[in-house]
Every structure is written in C-alpha cells, then in structure tokens.
C-alpha cells in the first residue's frame, strides 16, 4: 500500500505556493502544499513495510534482553549511524489520484479534493526512534477557481499545524506532462488506417494515376 494518512492527522504546513500552470492556451490555478510530520519511526512503515527495520534496531535486544510476549519491539537505535540521516523516497516520482481532506474539526471538512498529486516524499531519521516524514501535495482542479478557497490554501503556511487526511488510490498513476486534476492525460491513440485508401495508394504508386497515359493519347490525336 502506498504512503497515506488514513486517519485524521496533525501535520505542520511548511510552505504553500500558489501559482499558475499553462494547459494548452489556458492558464489555470495550481498550488503546492508542503507538509511535515514528526513521530515514532513506525511512520516509516507507512512509506514501505520493512523500512523501519532497515534503518533501526534494538541495541538492548542484541545484548541478550528477552522480548515480552505479544509486545511490539521498539527499535530506538540507528542501525547505520554513520550513513546520511535524510533520504528521498522515489526521487523525482510524482503520483496522482490521491484524495486530500483538510479538516476544521467541528466545522467540518474545509477542503476535499480528489485526483491530488503527492510529490517529493522524503524523510529524516533521529537516534532514539523518531522520524520526520515530508512531502508536497500538488493540485490544479476546478475548486481553485473559488477565490476564498484558493486564498485560504495559499495562506496555510501561516496556519502552522492543521488536521488532514491523505488517502491513496487503489492504483497509483504517474503524473504526466500536462496533468490536469479530474481529466485523463493519456495520449489520444492514432486513427486507424483506411484499408481501401491504402490499397488505392499502393495501386497508384505501382501503376501511376493515369495522367501520363491521358497526356500521351492527347498528343497522338493532335498529330
């Protein structure tokens, strides 16, 4: 399962970048919302199962301490402390089809967008078992034509922490150039060839179109 925040989660908005994109002859509104989330290194399991064990281990367990039955073993120690602490996951990859919900608590959902892009997913490790997961939500859908919504999203960085959900689709779609939320971006297939027309072109190429023959007949009659 790809990365998602299935439950309502408090995250820190580190940047909100309103911008315009060119789609054909039309310039449309778009926004990038960068977020970060700090917590236990179990967050790494949301990115990919086994990633936590790849980076962390339990030093006490290797010293012979027996685990308690039915208890999840904490992994507080960096397995490779001399390696870098910051990693990009799938560097350069962007996937669309996410659902982004910005929740205002008792006032309900203030934004509920579908076909959102998740980009720039990365994380930082810390000794002791905490990690920070970061990413960027990108969107250019019709909802941004609402000036109030667009303005409030643009000012999210000043809000600091918000509550949100980020739900992954059943099938991730890589973002293609010219992506537009809610619209297919697959190239139009080429038209099927006309077999009768092709047959005529082949005959003309082999035998000519008859214009030379008509010209010869005309010259003979003039003689």
Provide the fold topology.
Layout: E1 5-23, E2 26-40, H1 44-47, H2 51-55, E3 56-57, H3 59-62, E4 77-78, E5 86-88, E6 94-103, E7 109-125, E8 130-139, H4 147-154, H5 156-159, E9 161-167, E10 173-174, H6 195-207, H7 211-222
Antiparallel strand pairs: 1-2, 1-9, 2-8, 3-4, 5-7, 6-7, 6-9, 6-10, 7-8
List keywords for this structure.
7 helices, 39% strand, alpha+beta, 22% helix, six-stranded antiparallel beta barrel, 223 residues, 10 strands, single chain
Give an account of the 3D structure.
The protein has helices at 44-47, 51-55, 59-62, 147-154, 156-159, 195-207, 211-222, and strands at residues 5-23, 26-40, 56-57, 77-78, 86-88, 94-103, 109-125, 130-139, 161-167, 173-174. The strands form 2 sheets. The protein has a 6-stranded antiparallel β-barrel. It has a two-stranded antiparallel sheet with strand order 3-4. It is of the alpha+beta class and 223 residues long. The mean pLDDT is 85. The chain is built from 7 helices and 10 strands. It has one domain (5-174). The radius of gyration is 29 Å and the shape is elongated.
Report the order of strands and helices: EEHHEHEEEEEHHEEHH
Stretches where pLDDT is under 50 for at least 5 consecutive residues are none
Shape field = elongated
Share of helical residues: 10-25%
Mean pLDDT figure: 85
Helical region count? Answer: 7
Provide the β-strand percentage band.
35-45%
What gap, in angstroms, lies between the N and C termini?
86 Å
- Which class best fits the helix and strand makeup? alpha+beta
Number of strands: 10
The tally of domains stands at 1
User: Mind telling me the C-alpha Rg?
Assistant: 29 Å
Seen as an oligomer or otherwise, the chain set is: single chain
